[in-house]
Task: inverse folding
């Protein structure tokens, strides 16, 4: 039986009423209402209702036919809403609030701004200007792009006389293609853009080919041809709409321009893209395979523009979801990257340079970030995938952040000393490894938070390292059994299989490498470690000018018995690198493209394309390359000026590409995040 009755509605009216049709203000908050409790037949009698409060309930969506023709103000705070499109049934709505609905995102804000033509206030903020941009300028741009896509790729595919089957086929292809290829605005709004593109494409086909629409037609928008495009940027738009929890939209990031490059006069939020000519440095004038897109100063202490001392340490690209608001099913990899350094963690759209979110802890210095995707129960036992970001650093505490909800929902006091690096298991989404200055690597099960963000974390293993672990990597062919770590005192391997009773474990093997005197050694600092493919490991040690590539399977016999064995690394090749004696300039790999990346003490990025070598190395008889392999290219650091002075002594602490090597994110010692894009 429904919780809502005629008597309840009359009692909760403000003021109390004797007739449903006389009620203008109604308070139904804190009644534990679910979607099924909103009976359209009963609500249809509230013909003059203007203000409705449904806050602090359990609604996950709105029924499609509540029939409240005069509704002007709606409060849905603190529910479990997942979709807002049903709100279009309230066309006169002027004020809407739905804060603390953790599954709603910026994309939903844009949807309601488009659907509700009279909306003035959203979550307490005046959105008149932004909504006008969404309804007019955004729609005009997308309509133009959709039309152009049809003209270029599909118009000639239809014969003069076409059958219904041919129309059905081309419609399916066009809708898929147009959602794939029509892009506008930042990736944080990609779901909204695809939603509008599909809507516009269906309207276009209905008009051009006389097809029926799959959805109710939206009100036709009257465009003023002389209207000027608003200068409000996506970055400013995000700030206008507002965020929830511990995150805030960060709009004061400084884009620093190379001094030899013309100043970009494009409108804010346009992406600040440079032409190839502008992007070239003097040394690489004719050999540019990547061009710089953005130089961002978004980790400043206290948001100070004078901060060029904060060190940036770690970055990792956000994984794509199988479903959910942040899902981008069209593109092959994410362009959103999490970066950390100083007191903050930032989420950046690499294409536009927009800092989407910023999370700060005033007493922390973050050293490492890692992503995982958890399947969470949202309501009525239904499940949904969400990306969770783990961030850790000097305090030895792991922060767990539900990014879609803009909410840090918990922390794990993992170590009493700083955490150098963290990583999640690729096969067990709740398993997190933390490597600490206490000379231990711990494996945690972070659990899955319930709908109220209650979770239980437990420690599963402790690996004794005997020196500080700097980099860790799970062996791709057996990620549940072996872990490698580059440490201050060498390169080690542990058996991490959980079917063993021993919770605290010593290392199983330590690897020997050639030293600079021509001998071999186990005692050296390994500050770079990553797998190039299932077998080839790239590691960087204290031997100057050298990055080693070696075979895991040929170096380590998994059938060997006993702990603390010394084994020789089977070297496949050496990569030529800087002769600097500076440490902690780490390397990374892009396995899909056979690339190794490493920055140096001059701000440059050394890139190695090893696709011509990997086939030979995979052979059982593959021989070591006789000569050092030079870099395929070195990306030189541009001449940047801040406050009129040139930035010098730039160290590249880390450099990471997305899985398809479209973007390259460079983290420096001078609080600059540089984003390059492959040409």
Result:
């Amino acid at each position: 039986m429904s919780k809502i009755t005629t008597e309840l509605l009359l009692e909760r009216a403000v003021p109390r009423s004797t007739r449903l049709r006389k009620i203008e203000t109604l308070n139904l908050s804190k009644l534990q209402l679910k979607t099924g409790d909103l009976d359209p037949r009963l609500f249809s009698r509230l013909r003059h209702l203007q203000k409705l409060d449904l806050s602090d309930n359990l609604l996950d969506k709105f029924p499609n036919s509540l029939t409240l023709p005069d509704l002007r103000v709606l409060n849905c705070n603190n529910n479990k809403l997942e979709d807002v499109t049903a709100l279009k049934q309230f066309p006169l709505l002027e004020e809407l609030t739905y804060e603390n609905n953790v599954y709603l995102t910026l994309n939903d804000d844009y949807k309601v701004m488009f659907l509700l033509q009279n909306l003035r206030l959203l979550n307490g903020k005046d959105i008149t200007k932004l909504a006008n941009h969404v309804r007019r300028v955004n729609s005009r741009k997308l309509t133009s792009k959709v039309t152009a896509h049809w003209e270029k790729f599909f118009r000639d595919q239809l014969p003069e006389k076409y059958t219904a089957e041919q129309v059905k086929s081309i419609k399916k292809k066009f809708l898929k293609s147009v959602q794939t290829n029509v892009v506008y605005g930042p990736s944080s709004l990609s779901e909204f853009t695809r939603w509008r593109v599909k809507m516009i494409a269906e309207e276009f086909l209905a008009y051009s080919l006389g097809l029926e629409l799959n959805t109710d037609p939206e009100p036709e928008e009257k465009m003023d041809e002389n209207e000027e495009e608003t200068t409000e940027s996506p970055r400013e738009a995000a700030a206008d709409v507002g965020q929830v929890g511990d995150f805030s939209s960060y709009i004061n990031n400084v884009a620093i321009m190379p001094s030899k490059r013309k100043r970009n006069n494009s409108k804010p939020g346009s992406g600040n893209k440079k032409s190839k000519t502008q992007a070239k440095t003097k040394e690489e004038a004719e050999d540019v395979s990547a061009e710089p897109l953005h130089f961002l100063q978004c980790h400043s202490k206290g948001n100070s523009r004078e901060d060029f001392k904060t060190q940036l340490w770690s970055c990792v690209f956000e994984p794509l979801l199988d479903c959910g608001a942040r899902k981008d099913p069209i593109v092959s990899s994410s362009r959103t990257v999490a970066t950390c350094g100083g007191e903050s963690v930032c989420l950046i759209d690499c294409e536009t340079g927009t800092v989407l979110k910023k999370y700060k802890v005033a007493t922390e210095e973050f050293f490492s970030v890692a992503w995982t995707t958890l399947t969470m129960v949202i309501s009525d036992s239904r499940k949904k995938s969400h990306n969770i970001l783990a961030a850790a650093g000097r305090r030895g505490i792991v922060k767990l952040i539900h990014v879609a909800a803009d909410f840090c929902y918990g922390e794990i006091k993992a170590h009493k000393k700083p955490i150098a690096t963290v990583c999640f298991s690729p096969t067990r989404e709740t398993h997190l490894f933390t490597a600490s200055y206490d000379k231990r690597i711990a494996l945690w099960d972070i659990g899955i938070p319930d709908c109220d963000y209650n979770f239980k974390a437990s420690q599963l293993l402790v690996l004794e390292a005997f020196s500080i672990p700097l980099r860790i990597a799970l062996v791709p062919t057996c990620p549940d059994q072996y872990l490698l770590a580059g440490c201050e005192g060498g390169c080690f391997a542990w058996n991490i299989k959980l079917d063993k009773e021993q919770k605290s474990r010593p290392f199983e093997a330590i690897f020997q490498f050639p030293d600079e005197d021509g001998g071999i050694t186990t005692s050296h600092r390994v500050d770079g470690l990553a797998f190039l493919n299932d077998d080839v490991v790239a590691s960087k040690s204290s031997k100057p000018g050298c990055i080693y590539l070696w075979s895991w399977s040929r170096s380590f016999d998994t059938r060997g018995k006993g702990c603390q064995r010394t084994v020789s690394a089977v070297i496949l090749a050496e990569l030529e690198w800087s002769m600097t004696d500076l440490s902690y300039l780490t390397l990374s790999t892009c396995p899909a493209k056979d690339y190794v990346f490493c920055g140096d003490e001059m701000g440059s990025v050394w890139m190695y394309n090893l696709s011509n070598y990997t086939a030979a190395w995979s052979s059982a008889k593959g021989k070591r390359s006789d000569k050092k392999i030079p870099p395929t290219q070195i990306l030189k650091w541009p001449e940047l000026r801040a406050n009129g002075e040139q930035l010098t002594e730039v160290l590249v602490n880390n450099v990471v590409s997305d899985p398809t090597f479209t973007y390259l994110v460079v983290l420096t010692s001078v609080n600059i995040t540089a984003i390059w894009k492959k040409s």
User: Anything to note?
Assistant: The chain has three domains: 6-104, 130-209, 291-319+333-678. The radius of gyration is 28 Å.
